[in-house]
Amino acid sequence: MGVVFEAVSDLDSLAKTVLQIDDKVGDYLGVAVILEVLGITDGIAQRYGFVDRFSLAKKLIEIIDYYRGRGETVESREAKLAEQIREALKLYIHGILYGSPWLLMTLALLSTEVALWSIRGATIMFATMVGLATFLSLIVSSAVQPVFVRKMLFYLHQAMYKLVVRVVEIYFAVGLLVVASASLLLYYLNFFLRLYPMEWFSLFILYFTALSMLWLAIAPLYAFRKYVILVAIFAGIIILNNFLVKSLGSSLSPFQPYGLYFAILASAVYTFTYLYLKEKALERYKPEYNDLKVKLPRLSFMVLPGLPYALAGALYFILLFMDRLVVWSMSPSAYPLWFNLDYEVGANLALLMLIPVFGALNHSVLSLYREIVESGEHVEARHVKLYRLRVRDRYFACLRSITASSLISLAVLYFLLLQQPQPFFGLIPVSRQSLFVFILAGLGNFFIAIFLANSMLHNYLYKPGISILTLAAAIAGNLLVGFTLSRLYGFEYAAFGYLAGCLLAALLSTIFTFKLISRIDYTYYTAF
Amino acid sequence: MIIMMLTEGTYPYVKGGVSTWTHNLISSLDEFKFVVVAVVANPYVDLLYEPPRNVVRLIMVPLWGTELLEEYVDTSLLRLVKPKPSRKTIREEFLPAFSTFLSEVKSGGKNVEKLGESLSEMHHFFKRYNYKTVFKSEEVWEAFSRQLVEDPLYASLKTSSLIRFGRLIQHLFRVLAYDFPEVDLCHSSVASFCGIPAIVLKMERGVPYLLTEHGVYFRERILDLVKESGTLAERFFWLNLYRAVVRLNYHYADKILPVCGFNVRWEVEFGIAKEKIEIIYNGVDVERFRPRPELEEEKPLIVVMGRVNKLKDMVNVIEAMEYVVGEIPDARCEIIGPIEDKAYHEVCLKRLGELGLEGKVVFKGPSESPEFDYNRARVVAQPSISEGFPFTVVEAMACGKPVVATDVGGVREALEGCGIIVPARDPKRLGEALIQVLIDEKLRRELGEKARRRVVELFSYQRFLTEYRRVYLEAVSKRKLEA
C-alpha cells in the first residue's frame, strides 16, 4: 500500500488510485475506507489542505464522479441507444436466419413446386417414404448432434481449434457410422416385415441417408452461428434441385438427393475451412500453438455428458411429429403409415409462423442470458433478492415478446392464407381440414416457442433433465389426446393432440424455469 | 522407496526453471521411484519433458477445461463413476467439514490445524461420493453464500463474484477428489494447491512431507493481485485464500527447503520455526558449465541470459549499453533467451532504435548450449527487477565469468562478493559497472575465479543431489523410527 501512496502526488492521481481499487465506490464514506486502506491518515489529509480524511474523501468523490462521468455525454448516451438497437436488430435477424432454411424450402415449394425433398404432385407413396425419412432422419441425427456439438462449442469457447477440428472429424465419422447402421437396420427390418414394397423402401433409405447426413452437416453451422452461410447453402441447393428435377425429369425424384449431397459437402467444407482459418489465425498469435499435440479425452468421456442433451433432442422431434404419426396411422392403404396431404399442408404451413418468432426468441433469450451475467456484476450478494427479481423480470419480458410475436405472426399468416395471394398460397390446396389443422398447430407452435425459450435457458444453465421430463410428458399428452380425438372425430383432430402436447411442454417448462429463476444465483452457480 | 512429486503449472508440461529443477532431481535420483502429480490450469498441454524411467506414474490434475473431473485419468469411466450423496448425507457428513474449511479460508487459515482436518474429512468424503455433484448441491451453495454474505469483510461482494468464488473453490480444490497411491514421501515444488495431497496423506497415513520453495508463492500472488482489478472484498478473499493455503503447506511440511535465503524471511514471517527451514541451493553441473577461456570473443561481449519479458527488464540493459558503447565503442551485447512477451520485445526494439544501438544489442533467441554462450562473453549481465535464485547467475559464475547483476531476490546471496551488484531500474549504474568490469582485466579475472570457486563449493549439482538424497532418507527413516 505504501507504494501506491508514494505514487500519489496530487488529488487527481489520488482519485484515480481510489478508482483503481474500487471503480464502483459509492459515496465519500466508501472513499474514506479506501483512504484508510491506502494508509492515508488525518495527518496526511491535512498535508493535502483538508481538515481530516473525511473532508478529503468528500472532495475526492467529486473528482471520482467527474472521471466516472467523463465521456457519458448526451451524444454518447444516444450512441449507446443506437448501439443497443443495432445489437437487438442483429439478434433478431440472426433468429430469423436460424429458421429461414425452412422458409426458403416452403417458398420454393409454393413458387416452383420443387423444394429440397418435397415435390408438388408427387404420389402419396413417394410422400410417405420421404415424410418417414424426414422424421426418422431428424430423430437419428438429433440424437448424435448434441453429444458432439456441445464439445465443439466447449473447445471453441476455449479457442482450442485443433480440438474442435478433431471433434468435428469424430462427429462426421460417428455420424456416418450411425446413419449407415440405422439405414441397414431399417432396410432389413422392412425386408423381413415387408411393411412397404422394397423398391419404394429403397427410396426411403436414399432420403433417410441423405437427410440424416444433411442435418449432421449443418449442425456445426448452427452451433457456430454461421447463419448467413447456412441460408446461402440452402438457397444454392434449392436452385440446384430445381435445375436437376426440371431439366432431367420432374418425375425422377431420385435426382433430388444430389442437391442434398451437395449441401452436405458444402456444409462440411465450410466447417473445416472456417476452423482451419481460425486455427491459422491463432497460430500467428501463439507460435507454440502450432506444435501442441493435445489429446482429446476418450470417447466414452466425451459421450457421457452429452447423452441427456441427445435424448432431449430426439424427444423434441418425436413431440413435433407425434400427431402426424397418429394421423398417418389412420392409413386407408395396406401400409401401416400413410401420408395425409390435408393434415401435412396445415401442419407445415403453421410452422412458417415460427420464423419471425425465432427472431424475437433469439433476441429475448440472449438478453436474458446477458441479464443473468450483468445484473450479477452490479447487485451485491447480500441483496440477492434484487438480482433474482431483475432476472425474473427479464424472463417475463422474454415470455411477453414471444407471445406477442407468435400471435401477430399467426394472425398475419392466417390472414394471408384466407386471402390466398398469388403466386404463393394460391397453389396450395388448403382444405377445410387443412385450415383447421393450421389454426391448432399454429397455436401449438406458439407454445412450442415458449418451450424452446425455456429449453434454451435450461441448456445454457446445463439442466437438460428438465427438458427431458417436460418432453416425455408432452409426448404422452400429444399421443393420448391426438389418438383419442382423431379416432372419435376425424384425423384433423389429432392437431388437438399437438396443441395439448405443446401446451403441456410450455406449461411444465415454464414452471420449472420459474423455479430455476427464483434461485438464479444458485442455478447459475451450478451451471458449467 | 516411492516419492510423490507434486508440481503446479510446471513439470512436465511447461518449460522453465522449476521444471528443469524437477526433471534433473527426478532423473538423477534414480534409486528412488517417483509418482508425479501435476496440477495444471487445463489439459491442453504437451509433455515437454519425457518423464525418466523411475517415474512410475504421472497423474495430471487439470483445474479447468474438462467437463468430467476424471477425463484425463488413465482408467475406465465405469471405475470412476461415484454415487451422488443424498441431501441428508451432505448435510450431516460433508457440511460440518466444509463450513470449517470455509471459515478458515475466510480468515486466512488462522487455525491451520482445523483447516487441515476439514480438508482431510472432505477428501475422505470425496473418496465415496461424486465431487462435482456435492459441490453443486444446494446445501453447499447455501453454506458458502451464507458464510460470505454474513461476514462484514465480504458483505460488499457482488453476486457475480460470489458465484465465481463458489466455482473457484470447486475448481482449485479438485485435487481432493483424487485417490492417491501409497507412497513413502511427498515432495511439493510450491506451497500451493498442489501441496494438498501431501497434507492429506500426512494426516491420513503419516506420510512425511517436504516442501521446496523456489519463489515465495504468497509474495508472487500479491504481485499478481496488484495487477488485477476488483473490489476490496474480492482482494481480501483472494489474499485470505492464498494465505490459508500457504499456511497449510508450511504447517504440515516436515521440512521447508527454500532455494535461497531470500525466501526464508517470508517463511519466518509466516511463523515458521527456523529449525524447520533448510536452504538447499539449486545446483548446476560444474563440468558442463566450466571456464573455457579459448571461447571468449576478441571484442568485448556482454551476454544476458533470460526470457524476454517485463520482469527481466531488458530495457535496463539496452539503456545501459548506451553508456557502455560511449566508453567502449566496439562493445556488443547479446540477449539470449526466448521472447516470452512479444509486446515487450517490440518495446525493446523501439528503444534500441531510439538509442541507435542496432547491431550493438542483439536478440539471439533461445540457446541449446548456454555453457558456450557464457564463455564467449567477457562479462555476464542480469538486469531483472524480480528474481528468485537465478540459475543464470550461478551458471555464469560456474563458467568463471564476472557477473554484473541487479540487487533483486536471491541474486546478492548467489554472488556474495564474486560480482558487482547494482540497484534495479538504474541503467546508468548498470552501465558504469559493466564498463568497470570490461576495462579492468584484473578485476574480471579475480571475480571470475572467486565465482567459480563459490559455485563448486556451494552450488554444485552433486552437492544439490547429495542434499536432497539426505533429506529424503532422513524424512523417511524418521517416520520409520517414530512408527
Folded structure, characterized:
The complex is a heterodimer of chains A (528) and B (483). Chain A has 20 helices and no strands. Chain A has 528 residues and is mostly helical. The radius of gyration of chain A is 29 Å and the shape is elongated. The two termini of chain A are 37 Å apart. The mean pLDDT of chain B is 91. In chain B, the strands form two sheets. Chain B has a six-stranded parallel sheet. A six-stranded parallel sheet of chain B has the order 9-8-7-10-11-12, sandwiched between helices. Chain B folds into two domains: 2-276, no CATH class; 293-459, Rossmann fold (3-Layer(aba) Sandwich), CATH 3.40.50.2000. Chain B is 49% helix and 13% strand. The radius of gyration of chain B is 25 Å and the shape is globular. At the A-B interface, helix 3, helix 15 and helix 20 of A face helix 6 and helix 7 of B.
- Whole-number tally of structural domains of chain B: 2
Distance between the termini of chain B: 16 Å
Helix share, percent of chain A: over 70%
Number of strands of chain B: 12
Q: How many distinct beta strands of chain A? A: 0
Explain briefly what this protein structure is:
The complex is a heterodimer of chains A (528) and B (483). Chain A has 528 residues and is mainly alpha-helical.
Helix/strand layout:
The complex is a heterodimer of chains A (528) and B (483).
Chain A: H1 2-6, H2 11-21, H3 28-37, H4 42-47, H5 53-69, H6 74-112, H7 124-157, H8 161-193, H9 198-223, H10 227-248, H11 256-285, H12 299-303, H13 307-328, H14 341-351, H15 354-378, H16 384-419, H17 432-460, H18 464-489, H19 494-518, H20 520-526
Helix pairs in contact in A: 2-5, 3-5, 6-10, 6-15, 7-8, 7-9, 7-13, 8-9, 8-11, 9-11, 10-11, 13-18, 13-19, 14-17, 15-16, 15-17, 16-17, 17-19, 18-19
Chain B: E1 2-8, H1 17-28, E2 33-40, E3 55-62, H2 77-80, H3 87-106, H4 112-128, H5 131-135, H6 138-149, H7 159-172, E4 185-188, H8 196-205, E5 209-213, H9 217-227, H10 232-252, E6 255-258, H11 261-269, E7 301-305, H12 314-327, E8 332-336, H13 342-355, E9 361-365, H14 370-376, E10 379-382, H15 391-398, E11 403-406, H16 411-415, E12 419-422, H17 427-439, H18 441-458, H19 461-482
Helix pairs in contact in B: 3-4, 3-6, 4-8, 4-10, 8-10, 9-10, 12-13, 12-17, 15-18
